[in-house]
Design brief:
- InterPro entries: DUF2613.
- This is Secreted protein.
- It comes from Streptomyces naganishii JCM 4654.
- With 49 residues, the protein is mainly α.
- The protein is 59% helix and 0% strand.
- The longest helix is centred in the first third of the chain and has 29 residues, at 2-30.
């Protein structure tokens, strides 16, 4: 019985670790600064017409 309990606890700990890693990865991806939306090339004429 104790081996079964140890196995269940190991599976639960592994699942909790996987969920924590996934949430940490999402938090790291959301932590990056926003990039400005300025185009590198514009097709406007220099005189404004």
């Amino acid at each position: 019985m104790s081996r079964l309990l140890a196995a269940v606890l190991a599976v639960a700990a592994g699942a909790a670790l996987a969920v924590a890693a996934a949430l940490g990865a999402v938090a790291l991806l959301d932590a990056r600064p926003d990039q400005p939306n300025t185009p590198l090339i514009t097709y406007e004429q220099a005189d404004g017409s």
